[in-house]
Amino acid sequence: MKYKLIVMDMDGTLTNSQKEISPLTKYALIEAQKLGVKLVLASGRPTPGLYKEAKELMMDVYGGYLLSYNGAYVCDYPAQNEVYSCTIPKKYIKPIINNAKALNLNIMIHKGENVITDKEDTYKLQYEASACNMGVEVVEDLRDYIDYEPNKFLISAPEAYLKERFEDFRIPFGDRLSIYTSAPFYIEVVPNGIDKGASLKKITNELQISREEIIAFGDEMNDLTMLQYAGHGVAMGNAVKPIKLIADEITESNDKDGIALSLFKAFPEISKS
After folding, report:
1. pLDDT tens profile 208-258
2. What are the residues whose beta carbons fall under 8 Å from the beta carbon of 116, sequence distance 6 or more?
3. Which InterPro entries did the record assign (predicted)?
4. Total-model pTM
5. How buried is residue 146: exposed, middle or buried, by Cβ count under 10 Å (0-12/13-18/19+)?
């Protein structure tokens, strides 16, 4: 058996358009775990936003890893022992918020069990809370509220406007922060040098396995380094073009059991019946 680790992005990859794991994909992943393969859920979501899917995939039984905040935090599951954590230095908090506000972009952070914002009509607020299985808290001013170093900022706006303003938001920070899109309507801001690929390396070091023993699935730009690091990077059929260009394989979309169909080829031991 070639692969020892299956790594998956969540939204647009593991889950379908209804934010559900399809029965066939769930079956394939559970069967792979029965063969001794470990799962890694790799997402921009906060750690609590991965618990539901982790349990659904029986990771509480077989064990695995949660790579959250686009790699700024990694823990094992279900024990939740910290493997790696990195936060945004306090000196960048107000500049991030001020720049977003100047460009009329929406700002969210995750803390505890809530998505925190300072506008009730923050774009995609309810979508984010629902996707992460979290509550919502609206504060008067995030600049006054944030007295700690967060793992990530989430910036949102309608797709066309976000695309137009992305470079205006990113350029002032140069290479001092890692800034990229995770969906057409989201910009993710994490500590410098943080991405899914770098944090995946932390897991492989802990497990003492090689890159060649990893198969990874993704669809958006924040999955690029993860697919490049894995021995076999798989782009979903619904992936953005740059992801498809660097992938070793292009499978079906997240709405057509793309992960399951790829795993049936990678693991002939798994019966399709």
Report:
1. 999 999 999 999 999 999 999 999 999 999 999 999 999 999 999 999 999
2. 108, 109, 110, 137, 138, 139, 142, 145
3. Cof (IPR000150), HAD-like_sf (IPR036412), HAD-SF_hydro_IIB (IPR006379), HAD_sf (IPR023214)
4. 0.91
5. buried
